[in-house]
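look at this:
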Amino acid sequence: MKFVKRGPITLIGREGCGDGARGGQWVPPLWRDLQMHMSEIASLVLHEPDGKPSGIWGAMSDSGRRFLPWEGDGLYLAGCEVRPDAEAPEGWAKWVIPAFEYLVVDCTPQTYGAVFQNTLLHALPENNCELAGAVQEYYDPQSPNGGMSLYFPVRRF
């Protein structure tokens, strides 16, 4: 667990909207679609020197696109980090997540739910923090185990 300040994060990916309680039904197809069509945005994606993408995100926002937590319906973007000036090709969505300070907590797909709840119920209050926006998922392409972190926004700047 660590605190991290991030400027705006620019992403291009596949966007969907649905009932937050049923995310397990409508979010996975966005990831499959991203993987099947990644070549269409490959030239826009930021890369590390070894050629791997710099960052892959499961970005979330309220339906009003204010990057607030889901209330009922929500928006989700399975996407990759791109240059701020990148233009989304037809059929793709571009999001710019505003600058936040985050409490970052590592997890796995198997521990996601428990880590999410534990952070909301314990870690944030114990650090005198409140959730200031929608939680974002980060998948580290440099990690040999496909490292996953949850970014809990605690302050917008």
Remarks:
- The chain has a mean pLDDT of 94.
- The chain has one domain: 2-156.
- Helices lie at 23-26, 28-37, 112-126.
